């Protein structure tokens, strides 16, 4: 058990918060429900959010493995609805991986790719998706 906790803690401690993340969350969390969907284990996902002091800006955290799912399974949208306890009018998936893009495509959502390096930017542009280099560029 101690070894497991040390493993979880190492992921939390090594996590990086980009400088644009907090201003973005402050801006959007008052107008929209912010849900973090992660393929990591729940302790790590929630731990990273707490470690960086983001919990008051995030309405729900969904660790897909807790539901027997992983990105890009479209059933994730049903989990989001259930966790929020409400119907969802529209969804914007903001991500940095092709799996995030595939999730958005599978649920019929708008996708915004955050590409912080040239390779990622080129990969997303080749898919024809909306690409930004910073969260500050996203208009919702």
Helix content: 40-55%
Task: List low-pLDDT spans.
Answer: none
Spatial sequence of strands, sheet with the most strands? 3-4-5
Looking at CATH, the homologous superfamily is HAD superfamily/HAD-like
Termini Cα gap? 43 Å
Number of domains: 1
Mean pLDDT comes to: 94
Report the CATH C-level class.
Answer: Alpha Beta
Number of strands: 5
What is the makeup of the main sheet? 3 strands, parallel
Give me the Rg, rounded: 15 Å
The shape is: globular
Order of SSEs, N→C?
HHEHEHEHEHE
CATH architecture: 3-Layer(aba) Sandwich
Query: Which structural class is indicated by helix and strand composition?
Result: alpha/beta
| Beta-strand content bin | 5-15%
Q: In summary, what is this structure?
A:
This protein is an alpha/beta fold and 140 residues long.
Describe the structure.
It comes from Ignisphaera aggregans. Keywords: Hydrolase. This is HAD family hydrolase. Belongs to the HAD-like hydrolase superfamily. InterPro entries: HAD-like_hydrolase_sf, HAD-like_sf, HAD-SF_hydro_IA, HAD_2, HAD_sf. With 140 residues, the chain is an alpha/beta fold. It has one domain (2-137): Rossmann fold. The chain contains 6 helices and 5 strands; from the N terminus they run H-H-E-H-E-H-E-H-E-H-E. It has helices spanning 2-14, 21-28, 42-51, 76-84, 98-107, 118-127, and strands spanning 35-38, 60-63, 92-95, 110-114, 130-132. A 3-stranded parallel β-sheet has the order 3-4-5, with helices on one face. Strands 1-2 form a two-stranded parallel ribbon. Helix 5 links the parallel strand 3 (92-95) and strand 4 (110-114). Helix 1 (2-14) packs across helix 3 (42-51). The longest helix has 13 residues, at 2-14. It starts with a helix and ends in an 8-residue tail after the last strand.
